[in-house]
Amino acid sequence: MAPTLFVAAVVILKQLVVTASLRAGLIFGLMLASLSPAQAEAAPSVAEQRSDYLEAMSAIKSRQKNKYRRLRANLTHYPLYPYLEYTDKIYSLIRQNSDSIQGFIDQWADTPLADQLRQNWLYYLAKHHRWNEFLAMYDLNSTTSINACFYGYALYKADRLPEAYTQAQTLWLVSRSQPEECDPLFKVWRDAGLLTDDMAWQRLQLAMADNKITLARYLLRFIGRADKSLARSYIDVHRRPELIRQTRRFSADNRRQRQIILHGIERLARRDAISALATMKDYQTNHEFDTAEIESTLTSIGIRLSRTGDPDEQLDSLPVTLTGQTQLLEARIRLALQQLDWGQALVMINRLEPASQQTTRWQYWRARILAGSSDSRDRASANQIYTQISSQRDFYSFLAADIVGSPYDYQDQPTPISDEEVSNLQAMPGIRRAEELFALNELTSARREWRFTTREFSPREQQIAARVTQSWGQYHQSIRAMIDAKAWNDLAIQFPLAYHDSFKLNTQATNISLPWGIAIARQESAFMPDARSGAGAMGLMQLMPTTAEQTAQRHGVKYTSRQQLIDPETNIQLGTAYLGSLLKRFNNNRILASAAYNAGPTRVAGWLNPELPLDIWIETIPFQETRDYVQNVLMFTSIYARRLNQTLPMIDPSEWRDFYQPEASTPTSGSMPGKS
After folding, report:
1. What is the set of domains in the chain, with CATH numbers?
2. 3-state DSSP assignment of residue 135
3. I need a labelling partner for 218 at 20 to 30 A (CA). Which of 198, 252, 510, 663 fits?
4. Is 61 exposed, middle or buried (0-12, 13-18, 19+ CB in 10 A)?
5. Residues 499-526 pLDDT 10s
């Protein structure tokens, strides 16, 4: 692979960086349970062991072997003892052999460290060309992308050529760049004449579908001469979809050309669905496309037309079978709702698969449409549907409950867990290690240890584990455990009052609702203080560093580094301040402010349509992520209000009233549906 491509790095000397700040107050008496009374009386305190552990780690990294051995002698019963042994081996790989590595793996097989050491040792062996040892140590069921490359080359060096070439092909046919360690394997595979033109094109196609343009350009060198110009056109069309309108350029009817055409049409539809449809019709006159491919492409165009309002009214004539096309049908339902075309919306709802029709979302909208009918039987049916779905816990059920005037059914069912069950789980070595790593703020290692230990837990054990991690203040971990257990109804665990005092102080200071502020954090990060999104948002309330800096300047908050955003107090202070500014900008409407927190205020301002009732506006938010986000935040806010002993509607009547200014004929008035 070209050196300019991304290369996954392996650092053999993996450091377990331990922060100096320790979390006090964690219960750790179980650590000494295995000692005799005399030993327990003489045993060092937890604080002393933590201090010795940190000092021992430092001694390993500074190559002070004698000091490390002295400190290690006092830490054999400390839960993180295997982490010391692991780090010692990592820092002395040059003096290790496969037997000593296997000995550690066997001894600490109940920790994630065993496989971590195996992967580091395999990397070391490969770098030193010890291929036979590599093959003996390699585990097909657990590997890294780099070691998978080395494995293929080790097979080649061992003259196991069919296996080596099969591994090379497997590693080749992916949409992402492979690490440079794959290059020697790919070279011998190519030299054997096994990289065919079809395989080169197939990987190009995978890269294009995954939007990996840098990889696609790199792959040009492997494309056969006959296809080189086509491949360049493929990349050009991806970057500039309007080029696909040059039909004479792509007039040849062959498989590769058709792939480029369909790819370009789908890309063009994202910008100009009308033009994409017209161009597709032109190509259909002289290209033999596969029926399924045409159906898929036209469906994508139909979804885009629906999202852009179908200005030329082409949807009804689109030659697509609607049966089973859930995404297209839902897009058309939303378009009909946006146009206040109630009859068309109901027709499209009736075309959905039965299972989709029965979801609370589409049951709500069926009832919403029937409620505006002049036929009393339809109105009675609407009320029956509202009543039926109001007995569930989700956004639409709560909307329905407000319409029929019934209380929300929170379905709160606390999980009864005994002290004995908690004690038994806390005594597990892996749980003790995870607890201590959390206490030392070694969050990555703590979560890895926790996942490894709980990976085969039963649903009951996951629920007990959730109770334990919540007692540690690791709310994200407890929520994750309840999700793994599929235990949705213990609201105290699923919706903890995390960082309550800080949220209370800062929501009061910014004049926003406490349940709403906590709900935003629950949706954003599930209370993971060091959460980072792919876009760069950080911390509990997932603030972008630029937004945080601007908010800090406006509110006089000392802010010098983005690293401050992983501090819960700072993140909550800035997050609630930003949320408060959005609330003011959008006239105290939490729904609009919530949407703006997710998608940005400029987008939301562009989406506003005061001629739509609020529930329709929410349902037709262009971004699915933002639509789901707003619905979750509103429902979570209601749940948190209940947890805080407050009685609040999910959507306040003023939010309904102030948003909507009806001019068209609709099934209901401008107030909350079903209310006058």
Report:
1. 29-191 (1.25.20.10), 419-488 (1.10.1240), 500-659 (1.10.530.10)
2. helix
3. 252
4. middle
5. 999 999 999 999 999 999 999 999 999 9
